[in-house]
Design a protein that fits this description.
eight-stranded parallel beta sheet, 253 residues, alpha/beta, binds phosphoenolpyruvate, TIM Barrel, 15% strand
């Protein structure tokens, strides 16, 4: 089902106590305003997940997820976490392929395809991130790059699996820089992603997909981004760390 979603990626921020306080604050502001069609997803550091799942238990439209998972289900991989471990902590979602994972941890298309499979096997909803670097945009390779990222990591999956994930378009040059993509540029890429999915899986499947935009979304620019027809919400980094900003972005949905 196509949903409107505001998701917060807390990255490596907040101690456990601070994270639980932030989740409580967000819950207090948004409780009763989320639904099956209009969701909030919190992506805190792993150690927060059990506590946050407890705080959100029973609330419709409120979810939590991991920021990453390993591409295998278990084994001697010190410091890693598997999709099934995330699921056992109460998480329902997982971010796959964030550009910081691609850049700092060398995650490539093949690895991300495997991570997506493990996530789906664990019944998690992957939020699959794609996006071009500044250099790629300046050399007008953005469609080629994003097209490759989604084809290589996702298009081996059967249609019912594609229907059960979300895609986040996050141009790398817009993440954490304060420089968001314009609504028109973001929308153009969202329409492209949807058309690629339609070409592979059919229009009905493409129209059921939630495609989020991420990259310097703030209370001041969320409404114009979310007003675009192919933008179904946002994956928010910096502005998700303040409950008031996150609420204001949710209000823009
Ligand atoms: C992100 O980390 O996914 C992100 C979009 O960050 P920011 O909103 O801070 O640009």
């Amino acid at each position: 089902m196509r949903k409107r979603i505001v998701a917060g990626n807390w990255k490596m921020h907040k101690t456990l106590e601070e994270g639980l306080d932030l989740a409580r604050d967000i819950r207090a502001r948004l409780q009763g305003r989320c639904s099956e069609e209009k969701e909030v997803i919190l992506f805190p550091p792993f150690i927060h997940l059990t506590g946050i799942a407890e705080l959100l238990k029973g609330l419709t439209g409120f979810h939590s997820g991991g920021q990453n998972c390993h591409h295998k289900n278990e084994g001697a991989y010190t410091g890693e976490i598997s999709a099934s471990m995330l699921a056992s902590s109460g998480a329902s979602h997982v971010i796959i392929g964030h550009s910081e994972r691609r850049k700092y941890f060398g995650e490539d298309d093949a690895l991300l395809a495997a991570k997506t499979e493990r996530a789906l096997e664990a019944k998690l909803t992957p939020v699959f991130c794609c996006g071009e670097t500044l250099e790629e945009r300046e050399s007008e390779k953005q469609f080629e790059v994003v097209g490759r990222q989604i084809r290589k990591a996702l298009f081996h999956l059967p249609e019912e699996k594609i229907r059960s994930l979300h895609i986040a378009y996050e141009p790398v040059w817009a993440i954490g820089t304060g420089r968001s993509a314009s609504p028109e540029a973001a929308s153009e890429m969202h329409a492209f992603i949807r058309s690629e999915v339609a070409a592979q899986y059919g229009r009905k499947c493409a129209d059921s997909l939630s495609i989020l935009y991420g990259g310097s979304v703030k209370p001041g620019n969320a409404a114009e981004l979310f007003a675009m027809p192919d933008i179904d919400g946002g994956l928010i980094g910096g502005a998700s760390l303040q409950a008031a900003d996150f609420e204001a972005i949710f209000n823009a949905l």
